[in-house]
Specification:
three-stranded antiparallel beta sheet, alpha+beta
């Protein structure tokens, strides 16, 4: 299994309790806050922070991210699984979320929070054209390339194809329901990955281009001594996945138009950090 190591960041043992220190000398009385809720004037000599000196992160909705697609080409991000939807019509979609922190500027990176869709089955047209004529060279190449990418991605995550479960027809099923969490002391903890992907677009007749992202490699991030980095809990997953992970379900909800039913995960299902693990905040 390919593993990206980053040294032993985070998860340091708690310091031993210090001996009780003598009480400090009494300080001069503090200035009283003005009555009526007004703000005191700025501190003497204070100047506004320069751009890039921390902060400044503006959370975007998924629709706002859709309006700012990734440029065509190769991309690599630290990511975690934000949600999983098993569609009533068949198929499953996993959504990654980018975790990007610019340490030099002490602020979030330009791609922080971006969602990336990862379908666990090929696009309907790709599969239908291949099944209709497996000997068609173009159809076979499109399906073969898609299948190669998802098999390679899971192999890099430590789940080779031969370990996948089988469906009723005996075909291997991608392990989307288990690869993103590890068992630490009897608790299933979601972890961080480095994800390599290729963004591409295709347009014709002057129409809005069709855009997609092909995930090509998924590598668990670990410290030099083999500890994974704890990730945020997914917001929602299929209810059987929540039960298998022994996570608390805050509520179940139906997506519009009866597209799917998802379980919303209680944020207290897993402690943070759990068992003194390094976390995504240490990356």
């Amino acid at each position: 299994m390919a593993i990206r190591t980053l040294g032993n960041r985070g998860g340091a043992p708690a310091p031993q309790q210090q001996a009780q220190q003598p009480a400090p000398a009494r300080q001069a009385p503090q200035a009283q806050a003005p009555r009526g809720g007004g703000l005191p004037p700025p501190p003497a000599g204070w100047t506004p922070p320069a751009p890039g000196s921390g902060g400044g992160f503006q959370k975007k909705t998924d629709k706002e991210w859709d309006a700012e697609p990734l440029r065509d080409g190769e991309h690599t991000f630290d990511m975690y699984v934000a949600k999983i939807v098993a569609w009533n019509s068949g198929g499953t979609t996993l959504t990654w979320r980018v975790n990007q922190w610019d340490r030099a500027a002490n602020r979030s990176g330009a791609q922080h929070g971006r969602p990336v869709r990862w379908d666990q089955q090929p696009r309907k047209k790709v599969l239908e054209e291949y099944l209709a004529n497996p000997h068609d060279e173009k159809a076979a190449k499109r399906y073969g390339n898609w299948r190669h990418d998802i098999v390679s991605a899971y192999r890099d995550a430590g789940h080779p194809e031969e370990s996948w479960p089988k469906d009723q027809a005996g075909n291997p099923v991608p392990p989307w329901d288990r690869f993103f969490a590890v068992n630490v002391g009897g608790v299933f903890v979601p972890v961080m990955f480095t994800v390599r992907m290729r963004a591409w677009s295709m347009s014709s007749d002057g129409r809005e281009p069709f855009r997609a992202v092909d995930v090509q490699s998924v590598t668990m991030i670990k410290t030099d001594d083999g500890r994974p980095f704890q990730a945020p809990l997914p917001y929602e997953v299929p209810e059987p996945v929540a039960r298998a992970m022994r996570w608390i379900v805050a509520e179940t909800r139906d997506l519009p138009n009866n597209l799917a039913t998802v379980a919303v995960i209680d944020r207290n299902s897993v402690g943070f950090p759990h068992n003194n693990m390094p976390t995504y905040k240490d990356l």
